[in-house]
């Protein structure tokens, strides 16, 4: 560590002046964009497609028992009858086939919608004579049609939603955070805090702003820039090396945004391909094409940030190990490393998208239509454009970051302390 503190070069005042002259306007633009595009208070009051009907409640419960034979359609659909206890109420329900196939068992926690027993269906009331409960009789002493004198499980008690994964996912997140802090120390902790703040920007600014009808491309670029300012300086400290990586990252974001907007329009990727886009298509002021561009920007942030900060660090280390080397020699050596970054991250991005769309790709592979032709249709086309545009932004950001880093690192030759901001 003592050797590093004495040999790594320090950026000159002139280099800092140039970098800050570029960085400060970008920071001001990001703040202005954040204020200008900030969603109105009405953005959080929009229609919720997942909202429950009056009298219904979303809760969790524990499976007490499961009986496949009690479901009359088990042979054809694979359903099963479940006895459930929510703590305040117990009852029965039919579990859907997908839950049975997953291996639901006694003791599992599941999330359900509890239906209000007092809530009745006007159509059912007209048939049953006024909404009698199970086992009740209609006027005249006859058994009401649709009633359940045997008290067998019905769908009216609970509606299955999904498994309750709060504990399992919470434990996994804790293990991940603990390992990051254990291995990376304080820098890892700062990175986790930066990640939390990045998600706060997306949840409190980006998503509501898009839903509020703000230009999605500008919202995406602004959110991406603000996130990068936060995570880079918080995780790596305020230094010339980090500032170099930030400038390269912002350049890559701009290229990605411009190309994403161009190819999304050219390829006409504004269709309704999924249930989610069908619901969002009815939101006033929301453009599906802009939403695709916004998604492309956010999806590319992680790998873009990774390669720029690593590339900047490589330039600094090369300059430290070869103090006699010229700028051209440092750039050439650093780009050899950069080419390896490009080669590895290109298929990293492609595999990430392929993993996220694996079920769709399986359906495409099972189709009689040629595989390559299917990739140009609908949701698959969005993944292709996202992969290629993000990769282009990455490929351009690497030499840009390397060039800036070489100019900065060779701007001064005095020694520095690793704790100083000049690194």
From TrEMBL:
Residues 124-151 are annotated as: Disordered. The chain crosses the membrane at residues 16-38, 167-184, 191-210, 216-234, 246-266, 286-304, 345-368, 388-409. Keywords: Membrane, Transmembrane, Transmembrane helix. Residues 135-146 have a biased composition (Low complexity). Pfam families: YibE_F (PF07907). It comes from the Bacteria. PANTHER family: MEMBRANE PROTEIN (PTHR41771:SF1), MEMBRANE PROTEIN-RELATED (PTHR41771). This is YibE/F family protein. It comes from Brevibacterium gallinarum.
């Amino acid at each position: 560590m003592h050797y590093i503190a004495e040999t790594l070069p320090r950026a000159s005042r002139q280099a800092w002046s140039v970098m800050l002259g570029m960085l400060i306007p970008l920071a001001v633009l990001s703040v202005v964009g954040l204020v200008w595009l900030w969603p109105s208070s009405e953005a959080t009051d929009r229609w919720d497609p997942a909202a429950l009907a009056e009298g219904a409640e979303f809760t969790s419960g524990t499976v007490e028992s499961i009986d496949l034979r009690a479901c009359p359609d088990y042979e054809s659909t694979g359903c099963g009858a479940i006895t459930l206890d929510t703590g305040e109420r117990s009852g029965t329900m039919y579990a859907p086939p997908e839950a049975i196939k997953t291996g639901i068992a006694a003791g599992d926690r599941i999330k359900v919608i509890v239906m209000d027993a007092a809530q009745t269906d006007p159509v059912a009331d007209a048939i049953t004579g006024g909404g009698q409960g199970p086992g009740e009789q209609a006027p005249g002493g006859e058994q009401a049609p649709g009633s359940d004198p045997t008290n067998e499980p019905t769908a009216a008690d609970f509606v299955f939603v999904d498994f309750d994964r709060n504990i399992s996912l919470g434990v996994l997140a804790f293990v991940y955070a603990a390992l990051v802090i254990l291995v990376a120390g304080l820098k890892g902790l700062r990175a986790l805090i930066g990640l939390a703040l990045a998600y706060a920007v997306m949840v409190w600014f980006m998503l509501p702003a898009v839903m509020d009808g703000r230009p999605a491309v500008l919202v995406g670029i602004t959110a991406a820039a603000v996130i990068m300012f936060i995570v880079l300086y918080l995780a790596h400290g305020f230094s010339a090396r980090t500032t170099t990586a930030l400038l390269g990252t912002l350049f890559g974001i701009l290229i990605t945004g411009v190309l994403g907007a161009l190819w999304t329009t050219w390829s006409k990727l504004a269709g309704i391909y999924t249930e989610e886009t069908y619901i969002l298509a009815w939101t006033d002021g929301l453009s599906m094409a802009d939403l695709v561009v916004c998604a492309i920007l956010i999806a590319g942030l992680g790998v873009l940030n990774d390669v720029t900060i690593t590339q900047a660090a490589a330039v600094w280390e090369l300059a430290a190990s070869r103090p006699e080397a010229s700028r051209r020699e440092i750039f050439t050596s650093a780009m050899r490393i950069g080419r390896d970054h490009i080669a590895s991250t290109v298929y990293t991005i492609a595999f990430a998208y392929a993993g996220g769309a694996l079920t769709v790709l399986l359906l495409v592979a099972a189709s009689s239509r040629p595989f390559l032709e299917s990739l140009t249709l609908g949701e698959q086309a969005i993944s292709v454009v996202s992969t290629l545009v993000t990769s282009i932004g990455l490929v351009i950001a690497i030499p840009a970051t390397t060039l800036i880093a070489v100019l900065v690192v060779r701007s001064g030759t005095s020694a520095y302390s690793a704790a100083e901001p000049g690194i």
